[in-house]
Specification:
By secondary structure, this protein is an alpha/beta fold. It has one domain (33-194): Vaccinia Virus protein VP39 (Rossmann fold, 3-Layer(aba) Sandwich), CATH 3.40.50.150. The chain is built from five helices and seven strands. Strands 3-2-1-4-5-7-6 form a seven-stranded mixed β-sheet, sandwiched between helices. Strand 6 (176-184) and strand 7 form a beta hairpin. The longest helix has 11 residues, at 133-143. The radius of gyration is 15 Å and the shape is globular.
């Protein structure tokens, strides 16, 4: 696992709005009941991946969606990025059978990844925890290839929920066009395409 020095320094961890969900509670994110609200199968279907896509999962946590993403891109690759080393450590056992998966500890606002490396990016219920959402979206645009797609999942069950109207305002001002939304107003996956 690649590491970035002190990415966690200066961040506010906790379970309240605007705080980074702490790695000590990672197992709660793997609760099987979560499938009722955020199905990994529906998430991967909503992303519209091809088997050769290069996918970046930002704020992957313990890898709730990751095994199905890795399986969907057998001839591509999946890179999991999280601010917390503990989250990546929790994800690794879930992904040992996949040779196309790598891990990197990094901040969503400064990914440390070369430009135009990915076909798709997933942000699942984490953008509200980022102190600078605009900086994060700009980083996502930078690491996506021209015409690449970012999928952003939100649920009202998360204390950092972002309504679609607010999300669109943030994402579209960074050179993305809205593609579609799956789900309902309080729980959805929205996809945006980066400008060519």
């Amino acid at each position: 696992m690649a590491s970035v020095v002190d990415t966690e320094a200066g961040r506010d961890f906790g379970l309240a709005r605007g705080k980074v969900f702490p790695a000590e509670h990672a197992q709660s994110l793997l609760n099987p009941a979560r499938r009722l609200l955020q199905s990994p199968r529906r998430m991967v279907a909503a992303m519209g991946l091809t088997d050769t896509d290069r996918v970046l999962e930002v704020g992957s946590g313990p890898g709730y969606f990751s095994p199905l993403i890795a399986a969907a891109v057998p001839n591509g690759r999946l890179v999991l990025v999280d601010l917390q080393a503990g989250m990546l450590q929790a994800a690794q056992p879930r992904l040992t059978r996949f040779a196309n998966v790598t891990f990197a500890q990094s901040d969503a606002g400064a990914l440390g990844i070369a430009t135009a490396q990915f076909d798709a990016v997933l942000l699942a219920t984490m953008l509200g925890e980022v102190p600078d959402p605009d900086g994060c979206i700009e980083e996502i645009r930078r690491v996506l290839r021209p015409g690449g797609v970012v999928a952003i999942a939100e649920t009202r069950r998360d204390s950092d929920f972002i309504a679609l109207r607010t999300l669109r305002a943030v994402v579209e001002r960074h050179g993305f066009s809205f593609l579609d939304r799956r789900g309902v107003a309080w729980q959805y996956v929205a996809r945006f395409r980066s400008s060519p």
